[in-house]
Write a structure and sequence with these properties.
With 183 residues, the chain is of the alpha+beta class. The radius of gyration is 16 Å and the shape is globular. The termini are far apart.
Length: 183
């Protein structure tokens, strides 16, 4: 069933790209100038790390973000990029645009507060990359009857919040995609 959905999604994205409506090689780089950026402008479609493939960007609404992450005031919009690695493991970059940097920080605080402390070890660690500190979140999923670690990276840059996660226990894969944002 999932393969059929991914095939249909991939064919739809391919049809859009081939029609000329979207050129995955023509997305602007994020800048710090006076230009106004939207969340969709920050999805990585160029300079993707080796071994990753960009699959597309399904629409994401404010309600989707409130449902999937946290329901806070100030969410303006969102975008999501879907990727897979050479082993067909799925990864996501979600960019949430908020009204201002205070709302972005509140989003992060509220999102992190939804996680229970781990019995052993730290749920949150704070690695640095691209000139800032992010939060690495470890969560566990049951796979084949065993608890398997899953990682997400979370940080803000101005009024944008970035969430990068993957369906893998290899946090270095997820981090490579997080670093590719340049943010």
């Amino acid at each position: 069933m999932n393969k059929k959905i991914m095939l249909i999604f991939s064919l739809t994205v391919l049809a859009i790209v081939m029609s000329g409506c979207v050129d995955p090689n023509d997305t602007p780089e994020a800048t710090t100038g006076n230009e106004v950026l939207a969340a969709a402008d920050l999805i990585v479609v160029r300079n993707i790390p080796s071994g990753f493939e960009y699959l597309g960007a399904p629409p994401r609404s404010v309600d989707d973000i409130k449902h999937d992450y946290v329901d806070v005031a100030g969410i303006v919009g969102a975008a999501e990029g879907i990727y897979q690695d050479k082993d067909f493991v799925e990864f996501h970059i979600t960019v949430v645009e908020l009204a201002d940097s205070d709302d972005a920080e509140n989003f992060i605080i509220q999102y992190k507060s939804g996680f229970m402390p781990l019995r052993n070890g730290d749920r949150f660690t704070y690695p640095s990359f691209n000139g800032h500190t992010a939060t690495r979140i470890v969560d566990y999923s049951t796979v084949g009857g065993e608890q398997v670690a899953r990682y997400a990276y979370l940080w803000s840059n101005g009024n944008f919040v970035f969430i990068v996660n993957g369906n893998t226990e290899d946090f270095t894969q997820t981090r490579a995609l997080a670093e590719a944002t340049g943010q």
